[in-house]
Write a structure and sequence with these properties.
This protein has 10 helices and 6 strands; from the N terminus they run βαααααβαβααβαββα. It has 241 residues and is an alpha/beta fold. The chain folds into 2 domains: 146 residues, Rossmann fold, CATH 3.40.50; 81 residues, DNA polymerase, domain 1 (Orthogonal Bundle). A 6-stranded parallel β-sheet has the order 3-2-1-4-5-6, with helices on both faces. Helix 6 links the parallel strand 2 and strand 3. The longest helix has 19 residues. The two termini are 20 Å apart.
Length: 241
């Protein structure tokens, strides 16, 4: 039976629904901007904001400023645009407070796994504070090994570079073959760790990568964390309560 010493998780669309959160945040932001005086059809405004996010990237800090540049100036004539932008920003952060929560089964599974000898960690792509903030808001840090949180922005290696996964295993002095990685993107979360011989788990739960096919097949495919727990029990012989 293969040994399992560590499980690393992606964050976005693995521990929580990034896609659903982004959808809610855009909608709430647009409504707030309209209440602040912006004259724009809701659906048109949401579509423009979505395009801005896709074009400039999710980590860009001025999405709402760029949105206004794409709209007719008449749509906010006589109103200070900073007020409209601020309304959108505030609504976004209020959505974080109310809607950024882990999937229902994530807490129970991590809690159970934290009572075993398995090291639980994170390998995630993004800005260090932004990704760390998600873990804090999701209230998952208490289940994770503090030595096992790896964020691309801190390491200087991004996905899908296989060195990212290699460095994480080496930092904990672990053989990659004894480490599992759970993620939602076949190209960045499955193909690279497969090259190292890691145990790969594709989370086909939600998100924009559901129809994407990688170059290599995952060892396992799941649609919820209960399936992961069953794999750990049945295939690795680890008693989990």
């Amino acid at each position: 039976m293969r040994e399992l010493k560590a499980i690393f998780f992606d964050i976005d669309d693995t521990l929580f629904s990034t896609s659903e959160f982004a959808k809610a945040a855009r909608l709430n932001s647009v409504y707030a901007m309209i209440r602040a005086g912006l004259k724009c059809n809701v659906n048109d405004c949401i579509q423009e904001l979505k395009e801005v996010t896709e074009e400039f990237g999710p980590n860009y800090e001025n999405h709402y400023d760029r949105l206004l540049l794409r709209l007719p100036k008449e749509s906010y004539k006589g109103i200070n645009p900073a007020v409209i932008v601020a309304a959108g920003v505030v609504a976004y952060h209020q959505t974080k407070n109310s809607s950024l929560k882990p999937y229902d089964d994530v807490v129970e599974i991590l809690k159970s796994l934290s009572n075993t000898e398995i090291i639980l960690g994170i390998i995630t792509a993004g800005l260090k504070i932004k990704q760390a903030e998600k873990l804090v808001r999701l209230d998952l840090l208490k289940y994770l090994d503090s030595r096992a949180i790896f964020i691309t922005d801190q390491i200087g290696i991004g996905k899908p570079n296989v060195k990212l996964y290699k460095n994480a295993c080496e930092a904990l002095d672990l053989d990659p073959e004894s480490c599992m990685y759970v993620g939602d993107n076949p190209i960045t979360d499955i193909d690279p760790p497969n090259k190292l011989g890691m145990i790969t788990v594709l989370n086909r739960r939600s998100g924009k990568y559901l129809s994407i096919v990688g170059k290599t097949a995952p060892k396992y495919t799941i649609t919820d964390m209960w399936e992961l727990l069953k794999i750990i029990k049945d295939d690795f012989g680890i008693p989990v309560r």
